[in-house]
Design goal:
The chain is of the alpha/beta class. The protein has 5 domains: 1-115, Spore Coat Polysaccharide Biosynthesis Protein SpsA, Chain A, CATH 3.90.550; 118-187 and 214-243 and 253-301, no CATH class; 303-471 and 666-690, Rossmann fold; 487-658, Rossmann fold (3-Layer(aba) Sandwich), CATH 3.40.50; 699-739, no CATH class. 44% of the residues lie in helices and 14% in strands. It is built from 28 helices and 21 strands. Strands 1, 2, 3, 4, 5, 6, 7, 8 and 9 form a 9-stranded mixed β-sheet that branches. Helix 20 (543-553) links the parallel strand 18 and strand 19. Helix 2 packs across helix 5 and helix 19 packs parallel to helix 20 (543-553). The longest helix is centred in the C-terminal third of the chain and has 26 residues, at 697-722. It is elongated, with a radius of gyration of 34 Å. The two termini are 30 Å apart.
């Protein structure tokens, strides 16, 4: 398997060994095999001289170049500063023979092989060596590069001839170094552009096999032999070097060169039947350390692509819509330079429903645009509210490599009444468990919401969970004075009223509000109205219970006004002019209403259960939900004593200072970063997979056409840029993968 380089070129071998005696024995030797391509070689050597420690030997080994520029330029240069040696071989033997000569002549040192069309950045060698010595079982370590097979960045598995966006090598390397997690991910094989070979592996495995002369796949063969002895190979994921590519065999015609490649590929397949399948797995596995390392490098060069699922936005204003839109605004205002922020909206919602956010983000994408994408478009997608259907979950999985969900509360999980059927409730519970088991991150808007989920058996690993309180200093949803409210609202002008704001879900406890209103009227002779404002729902709504309480109220029922859903203008007017805002909810994940009321100077009293007791701390009056008489007494204090009402408003306003959207956005960005530093989480398959795609032959035809179009496009690209033979090889590999 190995050659005897000393006997092939004794003068060169002797010259190398004599020169190495002047360098410390513990240092590796950096070897640059050169054949012609003079300008590339000079650029490579200059970068090595500038970026390599002075006590590290640099050897330029000329494989008998026919271009006189190589010797005339490099030989005098090597004599000037003594930083490196130029040694010319007596005869050309190809890349394999040249590197084998270096392996033997440099013994017992480690050897770093750097292609002559590579440019290295500052402090490159220390990082490459650190990767090689991360474990004793490592045989080789290879840097990331722009053109290096499975170690190509920024686009995975797509070698490019130049750097992105006009970056310099130093700039690209610095960004990647700063973002790297130093995972030292295992790879099936070293890639030959810039590789550190440890001496123990060279001594045990042997050198390159001359069967792969003059070059191509020699490193693959070496690495597979090393694997058989228990060695592994890693990527130095904190190091980037520039590789021009395709220069080693520049003098060859395309036909003969392709025949060499094909012959060597077949030899690898014969010797190591597992290898090509292993490489395909390494290329496509989204969960591997390599995938995470490449993703970090890509983000370092191009920025992360983040999307927020805003498909809940439909023009109606509820707490969920407010949370979603205000979060997007805050994220857009606090994002770091280079981060690409997108919004996903449903297919029919008008842009006006976004309140101008389309101008603050980089992209607004409709669901239809993502229906048939072949690859995830985003690095992370965040749904800032619960997942309620298999289609929701399928969207999150399809559009991004990772997905994060904000779990607002668990009322729909624990209460079957919020679902049309028992089967629907069971399906939602199963779906929620799958979300917790498969989401890359789960966010909560209060500690109580997180504790409640744990209590219900909805577990998520600690490193994939966080609590980020929402903001209450809304910018897009600031209640104004509403000088021109709707007629139904305007009729309230001049009449005192208690306002209950929100959807009529059972847990909002609107029947309790009617009982409390009766108590105020009977005990304190309060003359005002009770006003309900907010949408009504069928499943989980309290309409029947409210109607029963109104019947019990007799004549007082004429003083209860149900407005239904109101717009922002009317909401602002109602909050501004109310004598009191009542918030008797039994269950909240956070609770916007008390803060919205206090913001316009209106006293508010709420229950203290679940998250409200956590976020509304301080010297406050709370509703006693178990004793309507005691609650009426406290409400009367707020209605009759301006000092008590003002104190209540001040206390809530003071508490509101802790809940800003900027803080929410900063906590959210920090959580995104922590999730992006973790491997992609394995997905849990749905028991209702058939629901994830529209049924019927029309969809099957569309899907097949899309898949075929993708393959046809790829095949055309190969044919145009690489020729017919590579296309045939691609087809063969596909059939081998598809049919074994």
């Amino acid at each position: 398997m190995t050659s005897s380089p000393q006997s092939e070129d004794k003068p060169a071998n002797t010259a190398i060994q004599a020169w190495l005696k002047t360098y410390p024995p513990h240092q590796p030797v950096v070897v640059i095999p050169v054949f012609n391509a003079c300008n590339d070689a000079l650029r490579c050597v200059n970068s090595l001289i500038a970026s390599t420690p002075a006590d590290v030997p640099i050897l330029v080994l000329d494989d008998a170049s026919t271009d006189e520029c190589v010797q005339s330029s490099l030989e005098p240069l090597s004599r000037q500063g003594g930083r490196f040696a130029y040694v010319r071989k007596a005869a050309n033997s190809g890349f394999v023979g040249t590197v084998n000569l270096a392996f033997g002549a440099c013994e017992p040192r480690d050897v770093v092989v750097v292609n002559s069309d590579v440019v290295v950045p500052a402090r490159w060698l220390g990082r490459l060596r650190d990767a090689a010595y991360a474990r004793t079982t490592i045989a080789t370590a290879t840097s990331l590069t722009n053109s290096g097979g499975i170690l190509s960045v920024p686009h995975r598995n797509l070698p490019l001839p130049e750097l992105e966006n006009g970056m310099t090598v130093e700039q690209a390397d610095e960004r990647i170094r700063a973002m790297s997690l130093r995972l030292r991910p295992p790879v099936p094989t070293a890639i030959g552009h810039c590789t550190y070979f440890k001496r123990p592996a060279l001594n045990l495995v042997g050198y390159f096999d001359e069967a792969f002369a003059p070059g191509y796949d020699e490193e693959v063969d070496f690495c597979q032999r090393a694997n058989a002895l228990g060695f592994i190979h890693v990527a130095a994921d904190d190091l980037f070097v520039y590789h021009k590519g395709s220069q080693s065999f520049g003098q060859w015609n395309a036909g003969p060169l392709q025949r060499v490649k094909d012959r060597h590929e077949q030899e690898i397949a014969n010797r190591y039947p597992w290898y090509h399948r292993w490489v395909r797995e390494a290329e496509s596995d989204p969960h591997s350390p390599l995938a995470l390392a490449l993703e970090r490098a890509r983000a370092a060069l191009l920025g992360y692509r983040i999307a927020v699922d805003a498909t809940c936005v439909n023009g109606v204003t509820t707490g969920t819509q407010v949370l979603t839109l205000e979060l997007i605004r805050a994220l857009a205002e606090t994002r770091e330079p280079g981060t690409h922020l997108s919004i996903i909206i449903n297919d029919i919602v008008p842009m006006s429903a976004l309140h101008g956010l389309d101008r603050q983000v980089d992209e607004v994408t409709r669901q239809a645009d993502l229906r048939y994408i072949a690859e995830p478009r985003f690095d992370l997608v965040h749904r800032p509210y619960q997942v309620t259907s298999d289609a929701d979950l399928a969207l999150l999985r399809r559009v991004a490599r990772r997905f994060v969900v904000t779990h607002l509360d668990n009322i729909s999980f624990v209460d079957a009444a919020y679902h049309a059927t028992t089967e629907g409730w069971e399906g939602y519970r199963h779906l929620t468990r799958r979300v917790f088991n498969s989401a890359d991150g789960i966010m909560f808007i209060s500690r109580d919401a997180a504790l409640d989920a744990t209590h219900l058996g909805l577990h998520v690993p600690a490193e994939r969970s966080c609590t980020a309180y929402v903001g209450v200093d809304h910018t897009l949803h600031v209640p104004d004075r509403g000088d021109h409210p709707a007629p139904g609202v305007q009729n309230l002008s001049g009449r005192p009223y208690i306002l209950v704001m929100g959807t009529n879900f059972k847990h909002k406890n609107r029947p309790y509000a009617v009982r409390l209103f009766r108590e105020l009227a009977h005990t304190y002779d309060w003359p005002g109205l009770l006003v309900f404002a907010g949408p009504s729902v069928v499943c989980g709504g309290s309409g029947a219970e409210e109607a029963a309480e109104l019947v019990r109220s007799g004549a007082l029922s004429s003083r209860v006004l149900v407005l239904g859903a109101v717009d922002e203008n009317d909401k602002g007017w109602l909050l501004q002019h109310a004598a009191l805002v009542l918030y008797p909810t039994n269950y909240e994940g956070f609770g916007f209403v008390p803060f919205e009321a206090a913001a316009v100077g209106t006293p508010v009293i709420s229950s203290s259960g679940t998250a409200l007791g956590e976020v509304l701390t301080g010297d406050l009056l709370y509703l006693d939900l178990a004793d309507v008489h005691a609650a009426a007494e406290d409400v009367w204090k707020l209605l009759s004593d301006p000092a008590v009402a003002a104190s209540q408003v001040r206390a809530i306003r003071s508490r509101a200072e802790a809940f800003t959207w900027r803080r929410t956005a900063e906590a959210t960005w920090a959580f995104y970063k922590s999730i992006l530093a973790l491997p992609v989480r394995f997905q849990v398959a749905s028991r209702t997979t058939s629901r994830l795609r529209p049924a019927g032959p029309q969809y099957a035809l569309e899907y097949s056409a899309h898949t075929w179009l993708k393959r046809l496009t790829k095949g055309t690209r190969i044919l145009v840029h690489e020729g017919g033979r590579p296309l045939v090889n691609e087809i063969k590999q596909y059939f081998q993968w598809r049919f074994g």
